[in-house]
Design goal:
The structure holds 2 protein chains of 2 kinds. By secondary structure, chain A is α+β, with helices and mostly antiparallel strands. Chain A has 7 helices and 3 strands. Helix content of chain A is about 55%, strand content about 10%. In chain A, β1 and β2 form a beta hairpin. The longest helix of chain A is centred in the N-terminal third of the chain and has 16 residues. The radius of gyration of chain A is 18 Å and the shape is elongated. The two termini of chain A are about 35 Å apart. Chain B has one domain. In chain B, strands 1-2-4-3 form a 4-stranded mixed β-sheet, with helices on both faces. Classes of the chains: A alpha+beta, B mainly alpha.
């Protein structure tokens, strides 16, 4: 992974994990503070957040003189999106992924779609419930593991 | 008229060759030869589909299509057309160009869409996938579902899900990773691209989708062969079986493009160690080369 990709990931991790309960987002300063160990310049963090906003990964909102940033979707939703691509359930073959094989149980497909659907609805309550729907997928895995 | 007949004959021959390719099983033993044949047949068919209406429109010139097109071009700039060259003939030539434009356009559009979707996929992977010392060179997605795939490109990514990691043992996982790297190295996404584009351009033709499915299966078999060169057959077959078993209590009808039959076929061919059929392969390549030479020579002379 490139250094830039590495930074983007670290910033997203901050938005997802280290700033709990902030529905209206965090400022660049707060992100930079949370990434204290990396000793990043304020402007670097701002550039990374700008890039992420350009890609649609974060949303920003002006508050006074500062911008407040928050993740567009949860980590689980992004993973669900990638899995739908990977399992060719996304309805688009554009990504032209070449798969070894895929196997999905019906429940898994539903759970994946639900994770996306909840995100599309976009309300905060849905987002809080996200991890729960994800955990609902776990029994299916345990099921498969017993196959061996 | 003779040239139009040439093109028509090529179209027919391509159709028949495709039928043979789709039904014969020697292709499973030498997937690479079969893939080359499919590509040649596809290209020959596209060129002939362009050439047939053009040749019909250019009968007045009584020359091979390439030379006749050049002659028509210079005649058009001078504003003189030979006798027997009417609006219908010009229209036919236009149709030929139109077919070419549609085929080329859909291919470019497919490529464009693929590059965009892949960039998005790559961006998301950067944010949520993790490296794992257990699977060097691959990215891991923390999800219980079973998936293993290759995101193609200049810097390809091999991705496996946590579900796959817990499902396969060490040797099986190595085989799967080699399989995916083979996809990346041989750019199988580009091999499939023209067929995907054709599916897009002609969605209502069953045989186009069949051809796409065939080539997709052959590409998997080719990657299977690379994996079995490096590892033994057993881990690869084992991995395929596990995927098949995990997906067995499945699934919304039509959601899976790849039938379970295809997985079975791949396991079966791994268990039977057969030498690639050299004679049939050479014959098939000769036929494919001939098919491709016919339209090209008409366009170049």
């Amino acid at each position: 992974m490139t250094r830039l990709g590495d930074l983007e990931r670290a910033v997203m991790d901050v938005l997802w994990d280290t700033v709990p309960g902030t529905s209206d987002g965090v400022t660049v300063r707060e992100v930079a503070d949370a990434l204290d160990g990396r000793e990043l310049a304020y402007t670097t963090v701002m550039t990374v957040l700008d890039r992420l906003a350009g890609k649609g990964m974060v949303q920003r909102q002006r508050e006074g003189r500062a911008w407040r940033y928050r993740a567009t979707a949860s980590r689980e939703a992004y993973i669900a999106q990638l899995m739908l691509d990977a399992l060719d359930l996304g309805g688009s073959r554009d990504a032209a992924l070449v798969r070894f094989a895929r196997s999905v149980t019906g429940t898994e497909a539903d759970v994946l779609r639900a994770a996306l659907g909840a995100e599309a609805a976009g309300s905060l309550t849905d987002r809080v419930e996200d991890p729960r729907t994800d955990r609902a997928g776990q029994p299916a895995l345990a099921d498969e593991a017993t196959d061996r | 008229m003779a040239y139009a007949a040439h093109f028509a004959a090529t179209v027919l021959a391509c159709y028949l060759t495709a039928q043979v390719l789709a039904t014969s099983t020697w292709t499973w033993r030498s997937p690479r030869v079969a893939i080359v044949c499919w590509q040649a047949v596809g290209l020959a068919l596209g060129l002939s589909a362009m050439g047939l209406p053009m040749a019909l429109g250019l009968t007045a010139y009584d020359r091979p299509t390439g030379g006749a097109l050049l002659a028509l071009g210079s005649d058009l700039t001078h504003g003189t057309l030979p006798a027997g060259m009417g609006a219908i003939h010009l229209g036919l030539v236009g149709i030929g160009f139109g077919i070419g434009a549609v085929l080329f356009g859909t291919t470019v559009r497919s490529l464009h869409a693929a590059v965009r979707a892949q960039r998005r996929h790559r961006d998301l992977l950067t944010l949520v996938a993790r490296r794992d010392p257990e699977v060097p060179g691959a990215l891991v997605l923390d999800h219980p579902g079973a998936a293993a795939y290759c995101l193609p490109g200049v810097r390809p990514r091999v991705v496996v899900s946590a579900g796959t990691l817990s499902m396969l043992d060490r040797a099986e996982l190595e085989a799967v990773l080699t399989h995916e790297r083979a996809h990346a190295q041989e750019r199988h996404d580009l091999v499939l691209l023209p067929f995907t584009a054709l599916c897009r351009a002609l969605p209502w033709f069953r045989w186009v989708r069949d051809a796409h499915a065939r080539v997709a299966l052959l590409v998997e078999m080719r990657a299977d062969d690379k994996a079995r060169e490096l590892h033994a057959e057993a881990p690869l077959a084992g991995a395929l079986r596990r995927f098949a078993a995990a997906g067995h209590r499945v699934t919304p009808a039509g959601a899976l493009g790849m039938g379970e039959g295809d997985l079975d076929v791949r396991v079966q061919r791994l268990l039977i160690a057969d030498r690639p059929p050299r004679l049939i392969g050479a014959t098939a390549l000769t036929v494919a080369a001939t098919l491709l030479t016919l339209p090209i020579s008409l366009f170049l002379s």
